[in-house]
Amino acid sequence: MNSQAKALLEVSSLSMRFGGLLAVDGVSLSVMDKEVFAIIGPNGAGKTTVFNCISGFYQPSSGDISLDGTSIARQPSHQVAQQGLVRTFQNIRLFKSMTVVENLLVAQHHQVNTNLLWGLLKTPAYRKSEKEALQRAAYWLDQLGLTALANREAGTLSYGLQRRVEIARCMITRPRLLLLDEPAAGLNPHEKQELSELIDRLRREHGVAVLLIEHDMSLIMGISDRILVMEHGKPIVTGTPAQVRSDERVIKAYLGEE
Ligand SMILES: Nc1ncnc2c1ncn2[C@@H]1O[C@H](COP(=O)(O)OP(=O)(O)OP(=O)(O)O)[C@@H](O)[C@H]1O
């Protein structure tokens, strides 16, 4: 890792308090272009709270978060998303009664020209933007191996496939940084293997950086460039999988529990 390179995401001294509970206490991390960066730690360590702060769902109590040099710490989630930082959720949030392709079309609504009058008049400009949205949806369905399922209701798909649709829905907005909240939860070993390959391909072929929270150690150790270990809201160590695996504090606090 080139220490001179500029970080895509820079989180400095982030803290988040809920009443008397300091859920996140002085977390700093940086994610470089095309890096796969994982946050691990026991239940309640504060990982999801860090994610919620970064993606604009919580306003941090203190600290700063910047994306490509611009502070996003106090921006709402839709603004953060427009700047290229999008996320999935621990509990999948698809429109379950819409089809797979409709879920991908809805995701583009802020990028597609949806001027009401244009829509009513079905002007050539409106039709062109609609056609382009459909082409982009077809492209991402193909990239994620979902083409055959385009017209299936999202809620009828297996857990693993719904997670894939969620990732497609993120990628269609062309993010620079993709946040995945426990993407392997509920997946079988074969699906986990496919997920690892997918994350690697997204970064190599589509140039996206990935920040993820995950409990599956073999997946994390296999795909991450760097890992931050948290405990009780505090950062314990940041390092490569090999460094983290051999760190005494980590073994004691986390891996020792396994
Ligand atoms: N909105 C909230 N209001 C009050 N307390 C909260 C809120 N969100 C999280 N917490 C508390 O903050 C602490 C950290 O929770 P968080 O969900 O960030 O942990 P986590 O590391 O993601 O855990 P898990 O691995 O179980 O998802 C916990 O004690 C949790 O109860």
Automatic annotation (TrEMBL):
<dbReference type="Pfam" id="PF00005">
    <property type="entry name" value="ABC_tran"/>
</dbReference>
<protein>
    <submittedName>
        <fullName>High-affinity branched-chain amino acid ABC transporter ATP-binding protein LivG</fullName>
    </submittedName>
</protein>
<keyword id="KW-0029">Amino-acid transport</keyword>
<dbReference type="InterPro" id="IPR032823">
    <property type="entry name" value="BCA_ABC_TP_C"/>
</dbReference>
<dbReference type="GO" id="GO:0005524">
    <property type="term" value="F:ATP binding"/>
</dbReference>
<dbReference type="InterPro" id="IPR003439">
    <property type="entry name" value="ABC_transporter-like_ATP-bd"/>
</dbReference>
<dbReference type="InterPro" id="IPR003593">
    <property type="entry name" value="AAA+_ATPase"/>
</dbReference>
<keyword id="KW-0067">ATP-binding</keyword>
<keyword id="KW-0547">Nucleotide-binding</keyword>
<keyword id="KW-0472">Membrane</keyword>
<dbReference type="Pfam" id="PF12399">
    <property type="entry name" value="BCA_ABC_TP_C"/>
</dbReference>
<keyword id="KW-0813">Transport</keyword>
<dbReference type="InterPro" id="IPR051120">
    <property type="entry name" value="ABC_AA/LPS_Transport"/>
</dbReference>
<keyword id="KW-1003">Cell membrane</keyword>
<comment type="similarity">
    <text>Belongs to the ABC transporter superfamily.</text>
</comment>
<dbReference type="InterPro" id="IPR027417">
    <property type="entry name" value="P-loop_NTPase"/>
</dbReference>
<feature type="domain" description="ABC transporter">
    <location>
        <begin position="9"/>
        <end position="257"/>
    </location>
</feature>
